[in-house]
Amino acid sequence: MKHIIRLVMAAAVLLLFMVRNAHSEKLVQKTIELPADKPFEPFKLLFIADVHRRVIQADLIDFPVDIVIIGGDLVEKGVPLERVAENVKRLMAHAPVYFVWGNNDREVDETSLRKIFDQSGVIVLDDQSVPLFGNEQLKLVGLDHFAYKPDGFGNAFKDVKDHDTVLFVSHTPFDFWKIKGAFSADLLLAGHTHGGQIRIGPFGLFKKGSMKVKKERIELISNGFGTTTLHLRLGAQAEYHVLTIRPKTKVVR
């Protein structure tokens, strides 16, 4: 009987720990250099993905940033639009906000969600690129992966030139292998996998989020900020990122 009681107590403690992990987050800060034919002023980029049902607290960002990118799944079915509007408002208070669609975002009314974005000034990247800070050679490219458009990549990169410095964002990292040739980028950002969300040691449904510096680019996959289905986390801490981005002399690809 004692063993059963201890087992139940251990399971309860583990469950509470997982709930706590699902409602706390880590700020990950990195400084990176991106190749640039035309130098740009260093800037701070906040990347947050997979907010889902969570509330973004007003004091989450108590430091200056120059740009905010929401990497999809800002919302899911059942989340009040008032909460979404408040989350957006709190992000917009710090810097211009850019958004790409995730697989759960359209579970709410898309027209209403776009209205929130329009009223708040959020820039939705529907398979397109935009110059950053008035620099035509510094581009942010956003892909609406889950619209499943056959010409999505072509539209997203159509205004990107060979010598641009390119930041690419998609909700899913499973697009990363397509970033090559005419669709090359220097920094790749994604969420979606939640780092596996619940991991037993090294084992999980997906790999744990990470930043990988490769020969020609940097890839960041976030564990995400929120959870879905099971609002629990173990071994894949919720996180959001602030990247200080600086230029370096570009190597011809």
TrEMBL record:
InterPro entries given in the database record: Calcineurin-like_PHP, Metallo-depent_PP-like, Metallophosphoesterase_sf
Membrane-spanning segments: none
Gene Ontology molecular function terms on file: UDP-2,3-diacylglucosamine hydrolase activity
Lineage of producing organism: Bacteria, Bacillati, Bacillota, Bacilli, Bacillales
GO CC annotations on file: membrane
Residue ranges constituting the Calcineurin-like phosphoesterase domain according to the UniProt record: 44-195
Protein name: Calcineurin-like phosphohydrolase
BP GO annotations: lipid A biosynthetic process
Family annotation (SUPFAM superfamilies): Metallo-dependent phosphatases
Organism, scientific name: Planococcus antarcticus DSM 14505
